[in-house]
């Protein structure tokens, strides 16, 4: 039960109100997050604490996170929509 509540919070916090972020983050958290290894789940939880402006720049590949942990989860999300 506690994990279900935590997961619903995660979905709620993945809603950013910016279409470009929502179309990447919401499907990822709903379809991929549950099957991720714990380390990548922790990276995603760290990612959703970031500012929308930073997320937008990273997802649009205008810049890269300095933190390699964040860079990894950004890459996983982008690979989902840009395979190959």
TrEMBL record:
Pfam families: Sdh5 (PF03937). InterPro entries: SDH, SDH_sf, SdhE_FAD_assembly_factor. Coiled coil: none annotated. GO terms for biological process: succinate metabolic process. It is found in: Cytoplasm. Its main location: cytoplasm. One of its GO terms (cellular component) is cytoplasm. Belongs to the SdhE FAD assembly factor family. PANTHER family: FAD ASSEMBLY FACTOR SDHE. This is FAD assembly factor SdhE. It comes from Halospina denitrificans.
